[in-house]
Structures are given as structure tokens and as C-alpha cells.
Amino acid sequence: MGLVNMVELKCIIKEGSKRNLRTLLEKWSHKLSFKRFISVYNKFGERPIDQMEIEINKFDIKLVQKIFSIEDDNPMYDVYKIEKEHASYFKDTYSLKFDFEKFDYFLECHEEN
After folding, report:
1. What is the pLDDT of residue 51?
2. How far is CA 90 from CA 15, 37, 64, 104, in A?
3. Are 52 and 40 in contact (CB under 8 A)?
4. ∠ at Cα 58 (60, 70), nearest 5°?
5. Domains by residue range for the chain, with CATH
6. Per residue in 73-90, is it b (16+ CB within 10 Å) or e — as a string?
7. Which residues of the chain are modeled with pLDDT < 70?
8. Can you tell me the distance from the alpha carbon of 23 to that of 25, in angstroms, rounded to the nearest whole number?
9. Tens digits of per-residue pLDDT, 15-45?
């Protein structure tokens, strides 16, 4: 069944505790290899026009969780829209420039193959 065996999965479902789910996520995150990106979209487009890879060693997940008001046990594998109030971290850490009048920006996480 992949990274989690059936016994672990049944235990987690049966107990249904947040702690067990957090443990499962931690196991997965140590076995997964992933990259983080900022995808840039034209305000009126559906496809990204640019994608900038974020240096993972500079990515401070605890700080980014605070900036986006995300729980500290969330590994942030989802897509998050970067608003003006989030931009200063990315400007300071990665020297990125944002033009919120023309473009939408999203923080994304992709698993490496």
C-alpha cells in the first residue's frame, strides 16, 4: 500500500486522533522528496506564466505558517495564494519582486519523482 501499511492505517482510522494523523504526516514527510515553488499567473489567465523554485534550505516553514495563519502541524503541501501581506517574507528571503496589479502568486509544493 505504499508508505503506510494497512495495520497503521486501520489504527489511525479506528482511533481517529489528531496525534496519530500528525505522526502519519511526519512519517510521510520524511520519506517524500518535494520542492516548493511560487507560481505566477496573469490576473486573467488560467495557466502559470512563470514558476520560481524556492530554495528549500532557506524555507522557514514555522515562519511561513505564522504568516499564512496555518496550524503548526500542517506541512503546507496545499496551494496558498500569496497576498500583499505575505509578500515581505518572500521579498526579503528570496529577493523576489511582486506586481499584484497584473499577477496572482501562489505558494505550491510538488513531490519530486
Report:
1. 73
2. 39, 11, 10, 14
3. yes
4. 20
5. 1-31 (no CATH), 33-111 (3.10.50.20)
6. eebbeeebebeeebbebb
7. 1-33, 56-57, 112-113
8. 5
9. 555 556 666 655 555 555 678 888 888 888 7
